[in-house]
Fold this sequence. Notes:
The chain has about 400 residues and is an alpha/beta fold. It has 2 domains: about 5-30 and about 295-405, Aspartate Aminotransferase, domain 1 (Alpha-Beta Complex); about 40-295, Type I PLP-dependent aspartate aminotransferase-like (Major domain) (Aspartate Aminotransferase, domain 2, 3-Layer(aba) Sandwich), CATH 3.40.640. It is about 40% helix and about 15% strand. It contains 14 helices and 17 strands. It has helices at about 5-10, 35-50, 60-80, 95-110, 130-135, 155-160, 185-190, 210-215, 240-245, 280-295, 300-315, 345-355, 365-370, 390-405, and strands spanning about 20, 20-25, 25, 90, 115-120, 140-145, 165-170, 195-200, 220-225, 235-240, 255-260, 265, 320-325, 335-340, 355, 360, 375-380. The strands form 5 sheets. It has a 7-stranded mixed β-sheet, with helices on both faces. Strands 13-14-17-16 form a 4-stranded antiparallel β-sheet, covered by helices on one side. Strands 1-2 form a two-stranded antiparallel sheet. Helix 11 (about 300-315) packs parallel to helix 14. The radius of gyration is 22 Å and the shape is globular. The mean pLDDT is about 95.
Amino acid sequence: MSLDFRKIRKDFPILDQQVHGKPLVYLDNAATTQKPQVVLDKVEEFYLKTNANIHRGAHFMANETTEAFEEARETVRQYINAGERSEIIFTHGTTESVNLVAFSFGEAFVSEGDEIVVSELEHHANIVPWQLLCERKKATLKVLPFDENGVLKIDELDGLLSERTRLVAMNHVSNTLGTINPVDKIVEIAHKRNIPVLLDGAQGIAHYPPDVQKLDCDFYVFSGHKIYGPTGIGVLYGKRKWLDQMPPFMGGGEMISEVKFSGTTFNELPYKFEPGTPNYIGAVALGTAIDYVQSLGVDNLAVREQELLNLATAKLKSIEGLRIFGEAENKVGVISFEIEGIHSFDLGTLLDQLGVAVRTGRMCTDPIMDHFGVPGMTRASFAFYNTEEEVEALYKALIRIKGMF
Ligand code: PMP
C-alpha cells in the first residue's frame, strides 16, 4: 500500500505552526511523538461524555469506562501478541515498568552475590533501577559493551552470563544511536541458560512492535507517548509465570483481594500491579493511537522513516566537520551528531531559532557519552510525518550555523 504522507501529516495539528517566526520542523520524535487528531479527540470525548472511575461503580459510566479500559488492554495485547490479557499491566511509562520489575522481580529472585546484565547502550531508565536493586541486594551489575558503530558486542554476551545471572535487561532500540538490537539473539543466548530477559521497548514499540510470544522475551516495557499516544501511560508485558511469583510493587486500592489488619491478600493479574486509580483515559487513548498506526500499517511507517533517515544521513555526511555517532546497519530514524568546534547546546539553541527542534546533551545515556568521550550530542529523530523539505531545512540550518563559527 502506498500512503500519501503529506495528507497523513495533516492528522497532526501541532505540526502546522511557526516558532520564532519560522515554520516548525519537529525532529525530536525519539523524545516524544506528536499526537494525531483521533487521539486528541478520544481524550476530549472521554472527558466530555464517559469519565468515571473504573472498577468501582455500579453505574453506567463506570461500566463504560471499565469496558473501554479493558478494551485498550486487549488492543495492546494484540499489538504485541501477548498470550493473555492479564499479562498486560498498565503503568505510567517505561521508567515505572522497569522499576516495577527491578523491585518486584528483585524481591522474589535476586539475592546477595547474584548478577544482573545490562548493556552499555541503555537509557538511564534501564540502568539506575538495576543499580538500586544491586545495592539493595548486594548483587552485581555487569555490562555488555558496544563497538564503534554503536552495535552491541553480542558475541561477548554468553561470556558475561553465569550461574549467578538472574536477568538480562537490554533495549530493543537505542534512543541515542538508533541501533536496533538483535533481541532474538539476546533472548536465545540468555534462555540457553534459563535466564529471563527484559526488553526496553520505549524506542522499538512504534517502529518494530514485537511478537512477544515468538520472541519469547520475559518482559517487554514501553511508554504510550513514544507511539503517538498520551503521556503518563505505559505498559509492562510480563509472562504470567514470572508475574504470578512476583510480589506487588505498590500497595493500595484495587490491587487487593481482601484487607484485614491481620493480613492482606492480593488481587489476581493484572490488578495486583495496578494499585489506585489508573490513567484509564490515557490507556484508552493509547488504544486509539495503536489503532491509528495499525490503520496506516506499521511496516509502511517504518519504511518511510528509513527513507527520511537515509536522506538525512547522506545530507549530514556531506557537511564538513560533522560527525555522526553510531552507524549501525540496522537503525531507526535517529541521527546523533556533533559539529567540530560547536557545543551541542549552542547548536540546539541556534537550530531552535531557525525553527528546527532537536534534542541536545546526554540523552539520558551517560555511558554512551563516556564511550565516545564527548560531553553531549545533538540528535535529530524522525517520524513518518516528517518530510524531505524538513530534512533540507535541517541541512540548510546546519550550514548556516556552521558559517557563524
Ligand atoms: N528507555 C528508552 C530507550 C527511552 O528512549 C526512554 C525515553 N527517552 C525511556 C526508556 C524512558 O521512557 P519514559 O521517560 O517514557 O519513562
